[in-house]
Design a protein that fits this description.
The protein has 86 residues and is mainly α. The protein has a two-stranded parallel ribbon. The radius of gyration is 12 Å and the shape is globular. It has one domain (3-85). It has helices spanning 3-13, 18-29, 36-48, 54-70, 72-76, 80-85, and strands at residues 15-16, 51-52. Helices cover 74% and strands 5% of the residues.
Length: 86
C-alpha cells in the first residue's frame, strides 16, 4: 500500500488499524532510520486518527526517537508540514 493510500484511508476512517501500523512500519523502517519526511508522514496520519491500535503509539515513538538520534539538527528545522499547517 502506498503512503497516499494510507493517508486517505486513515483520513476517511479516522482510525489506524494494526495492519496499517505494520504497513507503515515496513515503509518507515524498511530502509533503516526514518527520514524527516517519513516522520512528517506519521505525524500527519496521527493528526487524522481519532482511534488507533495500541501499536500505533509505539511505532510513532520509535520512529521519532530513531530519527532524533540519527539526525538531531535535521528535525530542529521547520518542516514543510508544520509550515503548511500554520
Amino acid at each position: 500500500m502506498l503512503a497516499c493510500d494510507l493517508i486517505l484511508a486513515v483520513r476517511a476512517s479516522k482510525s489506524v488499524s494494526a495492519d496499517q501500523v505494520k504497513s507503515l512500519e515496513r515503509m518507515v523502517f524498511g530502509a533503516g532510520t526514518p527520514s524527516r519526511e517519513q516522520l512528517e508522514l506519521l505525524f500527519l496520519i496521527d493528526g487524522y486518527a481519532l482511534r488507533a491500535d495500541p501499536s500505533w503509539a509505539a511505532l510513532l515513538d520509535r520512529a521519532a526517537l530513531s530519527a532524533l538520534v540519527a539526525a538531531p539538527g535535521e528535525l530542529a528545522q521547520a518542516s514543510a508540514v508544520a509550515r503548511a499547517a500554520a
